[in-house]
Design a protein that fits this description.
With about 375 residues, this protein is mostly beta strands. It has a domain of about 170 residues: Galactose-binding domain-like (Jelly Rolls, Sandwich). The chain is built from 3 helices and 25 strands. The strands form 6 sheets. Strands 14, 16, 17, 18, 20, 23 and 25 form a 7-stranded antiparallel sheet that branches. Strands 15-19-24-21-22 form a 5-stranded antiparallel sheet. The longest helix has 5 residues.
Length: about 375
């Protein structure tokens, strides 16, 4: 189904182109390597976590690059250049842990917060790991891992094969069945901001964003008034835990764009489907875009009607895709996708939508790693 409304991608086409510690680790003049990456670790009561161990890993969770200890104020610093890193923090007795993925910044403090570790058991004799992390199972058991969302993958010399995504809460001990009930790569469920989902860009040049492309002075985003994705995440009427909620008023032809940039171009040629849950009275489009080094943009997408109750949309390549001059065939976008967007369409009256549980089926999860 096509609405005939130009995509916000058309509007954007020409413009779119993380050993010593101190109380103030970002102060003073610096180059990319002098400040390194730095952060602060808080205990469960928000007080500084002094004397805790912080290890920094490469983006794939294969190599430990540095290990430091927090000072009396909970601050730490590692002499590494800006880049994509996994950061694991633990008290010396391993009774409290945290894990976070940090993306390219030498000016922002990485904030970590300790909590009780979780555990997960998978009934398999295969070697398995949590993709993009240093966490590997021993006889199918992941012990003392930080709470969060993860993708289980086989761990062999020939690479990875994703088995599915799951979430475990701090302090819980779960049994994870294979195959997982909800298979595929879990791109986002809005339940935390710990970047356990490695597939999105969570640094200053990425992450989710929200923007109104209005045609009338009366157009506006009503909730959240700040137009901040963080303020749009709510547990009220959520699908499970927390969901993204947007309320807006826009004339016909106007668009509210909710966009997510990937760390890098991702090969989606093996994609079977994109699945997401939505609820609301707003029609919307789901668009995947690609922008090459020359700034050329291509996008392909699907139109979806309003969903009065929580409903799962399953969107398949080359099935009921938007047929408009400004859109490209899926084959033009899939080899090097760089952006995922949800476009909320103006109706002339107040509208709202809630979004949750976005999954990509059939893709190689390792391809999403930075």
């Amino acid at each position: 189904m096509s609405t005939g409304i130009p995509s916000a991608w058309a509007i954007l086409a020409g413009a779119l182109l993380v050993a010593s510690c101190s109380q103030d680790p970002s102060s003073g003049a610096s180059t990319e390597t002098t400040n390194g990456i730095f952060g602060r670790l808080a205990d469960t009561d928000s007080s500084p976590a002094a004397g805790a161990e912080v290890s920094i890993w490469d983006a794939q969770g294969e190599r430990q690059l540095a290990s430091v200890v927090t000072d009396s104020h909970g601050f730490w610093r590692a002499p590494l250049p800006p880049g994509n890193y996994g950061i694991f923090a633990s008290t010396r007795d391993s009774q409290k842990v945290d894990w976070r993925f940090h993306t390219r910044s030498d000016t922002d403090t990485v904030r970590l917060a300790l909590s009780a570790p979780a555990a997960a058991t998978v009934p398999t004799t295969d070697k398995i790991r949590l993709l993009g992390t240093p966490f590997r199972a021993k006889e199918g058991r992941f012990a003392r891992i930080p709470g969060g969302a993860y993708t289980i993958a086989t761990d062999t010399d020939n690479g990875f094969a994703a088995l599915g995504s799951f979430r475990v809460q701090s302090g819980m001990d779960d049994s994870i069945l294979i195959p997982l009930r909800d298979s595929g790569v879990l791109l986002e469920d809005f339940d935390d901001s710990d970047a356990a989902f490695l597939y999105k860009a969570s640094g200053p040049k990425g992450d989710w964003s929200m923007r109104l492309y209005g045609l009338s002075p009366s157009d506006g985003i009503l909730f959240p008034a700040s137009q901040s994705i963080a303020d749009a995440i709510t547990s009220r009427y959520a699908w499970n835990g927390k969901s993204l909620k947007v309320e807006y008023q826009a004339t016909h032809g106007s668009i509210v764009q909710i966009a997510l940039g990937f760390h890098r171009a991702v090969d989606l040629t093996k994609l079977r489907s994109i699945r997401l849950r939505t609820k609301g009275n707003a029609p919307f489009r789901v668009v995947v875009g690609a922008i090459n080094q020359d700034g050329f943009a291509a996008w392909a997408g699907w139109s979806e009607p309003p969903r009065p109750e929580w409903t799962t949309s399953t969107l398949r390549p080359d099935v009921d895709m938007i047929q408009m001059p400004s859109y490209s065939p899926w084959s033009n976008v899939a080899p090097s996708a760089t952006r995922f967007t949800i476009e909320l369409l103006g109706m002339g009256t107040p509208a709202q939508i809630m979004i949750d549980d976005i999954r990509f089926d059939g893709v190689d999860a390792a391809a999403f790693l930075p």
